[in-house]
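Design job #97: recover the sequence.
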């Protein structure tokens, strides 16, 4: 549970680039025993979605948005120490953004969430070229590949990633997620067998616990 007052104070500090104040809020929540999932969704995700709305409605500049993004990325490393507290379960994942997809915080969080659940997760970042992704999957031989999509117009890039991974590794479990699916695309993905659209971190955790 993250109190509304703390969230609003955090958002103000984030928009103003007061990184140490944001870090204090994060440390306060960690000290209180807040679950990492809450930090990821109710603090980082919620505030970045709000940053997006402020940017879209011209209430903040691109510079303000970039600042908030960079502070958020640095805070992911603050919670990092808690990410590896779990015993390893001997399962591996490769997580990547689709080609031409520059939104990387969601994918990074997914990789960290898998680590929280004992998986070893390779996050290979934004805009990864398809052939390099396939090569990396061949080197790591993961149990699962996760692909992140934020912009629906990047769907063709995502489809090419899925097809390339699938053609080299026909039995690979594929997960896709990201906010692009708020605007559509789920039916497009359904045509790929063994490929699941996962809507939230809760669903991701449920799925890996059952697998
Ligand atoms: C920061 C940001 C950027 C940064 C990203 C930098 C970086 N280092 O990541 C930069 C400046 C690059 C950028 C660029 C653009 N952006 Co932008 N951006 C954002 C912003 C403000 C925050 C993104 C973010 O970090 N969200 C927080 C994370 C935690 O949330 P998330 O990605 O949804 O991830 C969660 C879930 O979706 C899920 N998940 C994500 N991936 C996966 C994968 C799997 C396998 C699973 C299971 C789950 C999962 O788990 C995560 C944790 O819960 C959003 C606003 C928003 N609503 O998010 C706009 C937003 C995404 N951007 C938008 C736009 C339009 C653009 C540009 C086209 C702008 C432009 N004209 O240039 C470009 C496109 C660049 C590109 N080709 O990718 C729009 C998209 C609208 C749409 N309908 O598609 C948004 C929504 C802004 C808005 N209108 O409010 N952007």
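Job complete. Output follows.
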């Amino acid at each position: 549970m993250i109190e509304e007052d703390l969230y609003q104070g955090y958002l103000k500090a984030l928009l103003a680039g007061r990184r140490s104040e944001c870090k204090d809020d994060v440390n306060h929540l960690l000290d209180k025993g807040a679950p990492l999932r809450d930090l990821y969704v109710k603090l980082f995700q919620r505030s970045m979605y709000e940053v997006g709305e402020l940017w879209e409605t011209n209430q903040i500049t691109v510079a303000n948005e970039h600042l908030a993004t960079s502070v958020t990325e640095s805070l992911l490393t603050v919670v990092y120490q808690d990410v590896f507290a779990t015993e390893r379960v001997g399962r591996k994942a490769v997580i990547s953004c689709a080609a031409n997809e520059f939104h990387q915080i969601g994918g990074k969080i997914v990789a960290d969430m898998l680590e929280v659940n004992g998986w070893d997760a390779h996050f290979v970042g934004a805009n990864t070229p398809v052939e390099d992704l396939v090569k990396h999957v061949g080197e790591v031989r993961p149990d699962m590949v996760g692909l992140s999509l934020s912009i629906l117009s990047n769907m063709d890039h995502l489809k090419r990633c899925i097809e390339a991974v699938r053609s080299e590794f026909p039995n690979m479990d594929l997960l896709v997620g990201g906010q692009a699916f708020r605007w559509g695309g789920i039916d497009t993905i359904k045509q790929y067998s063994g490929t699941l659209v996962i809507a939230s971190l809760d669903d991701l955790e449920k799925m890996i616990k059952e697998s």
